[in-house]
Design a protein that fits this description.
With 632 residues, the protein is α+β, with helices and mostly antiparallel strands. It is built from 16 helices and 22 strands. The strands form 5 sheets. The protein has a 6-stranded antiparallel sheet, covered by helices on one side. It has a 6-stranded antiparallel sheet with strand order 12-11-10-9-14-13. β13 and β14 form a beta hairpin.
Length: 632
């Protein structure tokens, strides 16, 4: 080894750590582990003690000043040298150092359980309510947080009752952990809370501080909570034993046979009955069945007696083999039955009695020979068969369903009469004959509303297809929008159930159209002439018919002329021989001559043709007296 290499080795030997053996070479890039090292943990400063972070004292070392120790040993106590002066402000010089409050009590809180009483004013069940709360006191910043556990379906907004903050006292200051204890009441913003208990950590915290907690209390009785518990309480049904037995059988458990003796004595013994059910449905009638009663387990089976070519689907059984209850209680599950069922037994199945097979009344009218012998020997009952009368042939009438309002009534009726309905036939001859005839009327709406009295309508009746259309005539500045009020369509007369026709279109008639009532008060000249040209349809518009109706009032007088003279004296109230139209109609009513509105209109139209509102009584009475009265 030359001198240059020895120089490098000497420099590298000065750089090696002290724990490396001196006899091993330490070249650059090479490292060696300490074979004598046994601990590999990392040093730390903080430790956990009693649930709080504290400073570890194992690694802390005090600096030793030799001059200070020498002065303490040799110099007088009053002349100490090297002692540092006392700091002006107090410092955390303790060993171990005291951690700050926010560090020592981080994530630590005291938990108390309490309640407050809330008044209830509008309830007949309770007058106050106990509301349970959880009170959390945070030690790191002296804040309080109050929450109320949520109760299912309580109807009360619950959850955070008081947000976390420092709660002030009523007399000043804030609440601290020293102010809280079990069995005490404290006020929070006018509401008084009562503490009844706390958790385990809170008890240990107060025990370490030497503060004694009061004994725990119980919550007072709450009528609301008691009612909720009663609502959720499940009362076991009276047949709990049967349910338990059912569950054991489903789980492959024990199968106790209580009816073993009955099975051994009555196996293969079956009572057979003939029953009949009077089905009152549309395709019903007398239906015959065979009912078998098995004596081994008191079960019943009902089989239908099938007939050829009866048009019914073959159902082999009306009731499968099971116990037949007298009044069945239908539930979703067997365990939900709250009532004990009563089942039919042999004493209940006597000839001539009616039994209910799940709401079907059936008559027992006959049985086989073995059944008759068994009833005679066991129950001492003579089974006498009942002779049924021959059923009458069923005459069923299919009622036409009511009109639902879709389309027309004729279309709906065609769908009832045939699966492939045909369009209804139209009266083509009537359409060609009366298609151009339109009867127009001035109509008034009949309503309890006073605003409807001023409304005017024009009603148009189309003689070709008996349809009606209504327009509203709006006056200027009336606030209403005129125009089409009702579309052209047929309407049903509620009096006779038929569509409105020509003969119903008379003055003074009351029509029900689209839910509104309309009264015909006036018509145009074309309609008047159409009435007069068709007296066979509109007899009230014929003057001959109206005068003949007036002549019928002359039965008690010798001649019609005498009746006309007496009528003139009754009508001529002024003595001048002339009356206005309104007085003329009123005087006729006063003379006990009752006519319809259209008949009064016919008289006024014929005896006042110029519309001067002046009727001559001589002309009117002369028209009555020109024809002789009818001989009855």
């Amino acid at each position: 080894i030359n001198a240059e290499y020895m120089g490098i080795f000497h420099q590298s030997s000065q750089m090696k750590p002290a724990n490396i053996p001196s006899q091993l070479p330490f070249f650059p890039g090479n490292s060696f582990t300490d074979p004598y090292k046994t601990k590999f943990n990392k040093t730390h400063v903080l430790d956990m003690k009693s649930g709080a972070q504290t400073e570890s004292v194992k690694i802390l070392e005090e600096k030793i000043d030799p001059e200070l120790i020498k002065s303490l040993r040799e110099g007088p106590p009053t002349k100490l040298e090297g002692v540092p002066p006392r700091p002006e402000e107090a410092e955390n010089e303790g060993i171990p150092k005291q951690p700050p409050k926010w560090l020592k009590f981080d994530k630590q809180s005291l938990r108390f359980y309490g309640y407050f009483q809330e008044p209830v004013h509008e309830s007949n069940v309770e007058n106050f309510r106990i509301r349970k709360c959880v009170i959390l006191y945070y030690l790191d910043d002296d804040t309080i947080h109050i929450t109320e556990p949520r109760v299912e379906n309580s109807g009360i907004p619950q959850g955070i009752f008081l947000k976390r903050h420092k709660v002030p006292k009523a007399d000043g200051g804030i609440y601290t952990y020293k102010d809280l204890n079990i069995g005490m009441s404290f006020e929070v913003y006018g509401r008084v809370f009562r503490i009844v208990e706390c958790d385990e950590f809170t008890e240990k915290f107060y025990a370490d501080l030497g503060i004694k907690l009061n004994p725990k209390e119980t919550y007072p009785d709450n009528l609301f909570e008691t009612k909720r518990i009663l609502m959720k309480t499940k009362i076991p049904p009276p047949d709990a034993a049967e349910v338990r037995e059912y569950v054991e059988k489903k789980l492959k458990g024990g199968r106790p046979n209580k009816n073993l003796q009955q099975f051994l004595e009555n196996d293969r013994k079956v009572l057979s009955f003939d029953i009949v059910w009077d089905d009152t449905s549309y395709d019903g009638g007398l239906k015959f069945f065979k009912m078998d009663f098995f004596l081994s387990d008191n079960t019943v089976e009902v089989r239908e007696i099938r007939e050829q070519n009866n048009g019914k689907d073959p159902y082999p059984k009306m009731l499968k083999r099971s116990k037949l209850p007298k009044e069945p209680v239908l539930t979703h599950c067997p365990g939900m039955k709250m009532k004990k069922d009563e089942f039919y037994e042999p004493p209940d199945l006597v000839l001539g009695t009616k039994i209910m097979i799940f709401s079907r009344p059936c008559l027992i009218f006959d049985c086989d020979d073995f059944t008759k012998q068994w009833y005679k020997e066991i129950l001492n009952i003579d089974m006498v068969p009942i002779i049924l009368a021959k059923p009458r042939p069923q005459m069923k009438f299919q009622e036409v369903p009511p009109y639902l309002g879709y389309g027309t009534a004729e279309d709906s009726l065609a769908s009832v009469k045939a699966l492939a309905p045909k369009p209804p036939k139209k009266d083509v001859q009537k359409i060609f004959k009366n298609d151009l005839h339109i009867l127009r009327f001035d109509a008034k709406i009949v309503s309890c509303n006073a605003d409807d009295e001023s409304r005017n309508f024009i009603l148009s009746f189309y003689c070709g297809d008996d349809t009606i259309k209504i327009h509203e005539v709006a006056e200027r500045n009336s606030g209403r929008i005129g125009g089409k009020f009702l579309d052209r369509k047929k309407h049903v007369n509620p009096v006779n159930g038929q569509y409105y026709s020509e003969k119903d279109m008379l003055l003074g008639s009351l029509l029900l159209l689209g839910g509104h009532k309309f009264r015909l008060v006036q018509c145009d000249e074309y309609t008047e002439k159409y009435f007069e040209a068709n007296p066979e349809i509109f007899k009230e518009a014929s003057i001959d018919y109206v005068l003949s109706k007036l002549r019928l009032q002359a039965k008690g007088l010798p001649t019609v002329a005498d009746f006309a003279k007496s009528l003139r004296s009754k009508l001529d109230s002024k003595g001048d021989g002339f009356l206005c139209c309104e007085e003329f109609c009123n005087n006729l009513k006063a003379a006990n001559i009752i006519l319809t509105f259209h008949e009064y209109h016919t008289l006024v139209r014929n005896f006042d043709p110029n519309k001067q509102n002046r009727i001559s009584l001589d002309e009117f009475c002369g028209a009555i007296g020109t024809q002789p009265t009818a001989q009855n």
